[in-house]
Amino acid sequence: MTFHPINDPPINYQLLSDKIVRWAEQLGFSQVGICDVDLSKHEQPLLDWLDKNYHGDMDYMNRHGLMRARPAELVPGSIRAISVRLDYLPTNAKFAKTLQAKDHAYISRYALGRDYHKLMRKRLQQLGSKISEHCESLNFRALVDSAPILERPLAEKAGLGWVGKHSLLLNKQAGSWFFLGELLVDIPLPLTTTHVDKSISENKCGECVACIKICPTQAIVEPYVVDARRCISYFTIESAAPIPVELRPLMGNRIYGCDDCQLVCPWNIYAKLSLEKDFQQRNNLGNITLLELFSWQEDYFLSTLSGSAIRRIGYQSWQRNIAVALGNAPYSESITRALNLKLETASVFVAEHINWALEQQKLNKVKTLKAGIEVNGELNRDKLNQKLIRSIEKSLPRDA
Ligand code: B12
Ligand code: SF4
Ligand code: SF4
């Protein structure tokens, strides 16, 4: 128990901490934990990652330097992080079905519904306000994704799971289909990791390397380390640059993010479906053809995707991604027609990707005429994709 100056009643932090866990659950978070903010052991790995330029053109990763590993520099006075996770897997994810249908768009399942940032930040703010009612002197800041802070190491410290070899946080009871967020606070809450089952944050990857092997672009360059520049999630979402030509065929039909390394992970057998209405698919985005999406005009793109995270990449990147996926689709006259039509109005940036796609379509046509002929290592790519699809159908039948 800690005693505050003269007129303030003493605050029982243990009791407060128990209440925080309850409030967080009432707010809909899947799990909550509390940790200190010492991430010093992550400073060197972070510097190494930046030194190797693995962040590509995500300048914001470099801008704040070591602040990412020093939450108390980001929000002076912070001594604890209340770390939360929120399951996002929608019902009827249809992973295998969509990856199999090459004329359909594969959109990362976290992005089929509403943008998670707003929802989570609002709830974290509510949690902070609730704590303030019981602790007037509290200073807090709610963070979700965008702030320069290492969220996975914090969540691991708070007992929400362990960092897997794909670098994502995994949880024994919930797999990895969840978002992370945190509230930095300046009160000495007791650490939850001292009384929760420590085995939760113990690394349980063992000898498994399934995620490293299945990654279509070999972006997991060593266990726990992702070279973002090779990650489909990076070049379809984060980067506004042209997609490197050698990586285009490897994208397949993935037009926004990628879930492959999580799809082969055995721990996702235990993943829970999200209870959030906001994370269920909207606008039929989980089952839509590439051609339909390619026909969207900019104003339609902006209005239809209002409230979705996808909108933030902008119309140019959106068209860039779909053009590449159309190039990867089996030859069809309607595809070449649509690509040629769009060429008339496309920007120079998008036109370059459309021209690439038209060339690919030509090659794909030859391939259909001479069955079995290989285009740009396609047989190997197909084998990997088929392996992934079989693994999903076998291990994740509910979500296949
Ligand atoms: C930049 C970023 C990306 C980049 C870079 C990814 C990366 N691996 O760093 C790109 C665009 C590629 C990306 C992709 C995705 N992202 Co992202 N991303 C981030 C962001 C903003 C920062 C991550 C970061 O700091 N990276 C820098 C590296 C150095 O940090 P780190 O990976 O945490 O590294 C630490 C550990 O790996 C550890 N470590 C290093 N070596 C070793 C060795 C051992 C033995 C051990 C135990 C640990 C260890 O130390 C490192 C340094 O501290 C976070 C949000 C945030 N603020 O944290 C979301 C975040 C990590 N992303 C998230 C998601 C969902 C994704 C995608 C799944 C989205 C998608 N479906 O397309 C993919 C997954 C790709 C993948 N396998 O990582 C979630 C992850 C949730 C979870 N369950 O873990 C986060 C936390 C966002 C959120 N708020 O929910 N992302
Ligand atoms: S998200 Fe896809 S591209 Fe990125 S590391 Fe995972 S499997 Fe590889
Ligand atoms: S696929 Fe295997 S190695 Fe990769 S994160 Fe999952 S358990 Fe760990």
Summarize the structure in words.
- This protein has 400 residues and is α+β, with helices and mostly antiparallel strands.
- The protein folds into two domains: 13-91 and 113-201, no CATH class; 210-399, no CATH class.
- Helices cover 40% and strands 10% of the residues.
- It is built from 17 helices and ten strands.
- It has helices at 13-26, 43-51, 59-63, 71-74, 95-100, 116-134, 151-157, 210-214, 232-238, 248-251, 260-263, 290-294, 298-304, 314-328, 333-343, 348-369, 378-395, and strands at residues 31-36, 80-87, 106-107, 140-143, 162-163, 169-170, 178-185, 220-222, 225-226, 254-256.
- The strands form four sheets. The chain has a four-stranded antiparallel beta sheet with strand order 1-2-7-4, sandwiched between helices.
- Strand 8 (220-222) and strand 9 (225-226) form a beta hairpin.
- The longest helix has 22 residues, at 348-369.
- The model has no long low-confidence stretch (mean pLDDT 93).
- The structure holds cobalamin (B12) and iron/sulfur cluster (SF4) (2 copies).
- Residues 164-166, 170, 205, 208-211, 264-267 line the site of one iron/sulfur cluster.
- One iron/sulfur cluster is lined by residues 166, 215-217, 219-220, 226, 231-233, 258, 260-261.
